[in-house]
């Protein structure tokens, strides 16, 4: 059974810092991995989708990497801003999507 | 191109009642999935529908059931509601290329 773990559970940083969120999974036979952002009480906004054949994806200040062999993914956020404050979730897809519990990020002005 | 929309946004039901939640898929997506998210946790997979057939199910009892319609919209039905069913219910549609795109969710409170 696929298990997805996200570390840290919570993170607080001053504005402008670069930061890394981690995601690990136990079954490497995945179709893809997806990073989401969730604001309190809201739905999930897709940030980056990495297909199993890819190593990384970039969108603006966000970069996500995937290492299937080690069961790890990282989400790198450059020059963080207060508007980046949210919960970040990673999900792996091998027939159904399994989510981590998320990392709650606070960026202080 | 319209995104995934869910209705209603909030709902309060009494224990033992039945509830139906609705989801309109993003245009061109023929796969829809439903998730339950308890407070402070990641979403848990309930089931998935592809071309009107159930195509996978998570660890949820049979009182959680669903439908997908020819226009790829979907319903989640929950019978005999329990207090622990209180959660945010999320619908996601998926294109053939993979990935999932979520609606804003329905907040269900069972009292």
Overview of this structure, please?
- The complex is a heterodimer of chains A (109) and B (111).
- Chain A is mainly β and 109 residues long.
- Chain A has strands spanning 4-7, 10-14, 19-25, 32-38, 44-51, 56-59, 62-67, 72-77, 86-93, 97-99, 103-108.
- Chain A starts with a strand and ends with a strand.
- With 111 residues, chain B is an all-beta fold.
- Chain B has strands at residues 5-7, 10-13, 19-24, 31-37, 44-50, 53-57, 64-68, 74-78, 87-94, 101-102, 106-110.
- In chain B, the strands form 2 sheets. In chain B, strands 2, 4, 5, 6, 9, 10 and 11 form a 7-stranded mixed sheet that branches. In chain B, strands 1-3-8-7 form a 4-stranded antiparallel sheet, with no helix packed on it.
- In chain B, a hairpin with a 2-residue loop joins strand 5 and strand 6 (53-57).
- The mean pLDDT of chain B is 93.
- Chains A and B meet through strand 4, strand 5, strand 9 and strand 10 of A and strand 5, strand 9 and strand 10 of B.
Q: Uncertain regions of chain B: pLDDT < 50 for 5+ in a row?
A: none
Span between N and C termini of chain A? Answer: 41 Å
Content-based structural category of chain B: mainly beta
Estimate the strand proportion of chain A.
over 45%
* Overall pLDDT score of chain A: 95
Task: Please give the radius of gyration of chain A in angstroms.
Answer: 13 Å
Largest sheet of chain B: 7 strands, mixed
Helix content of chain B: under 10%
> Quick one: which chains have the greatest interface?
A-B, 24 and 25 residues
Content-based structural category of chain A: mainly beta
How helix-rich are the residues of chain A, as a percent range? under 10%
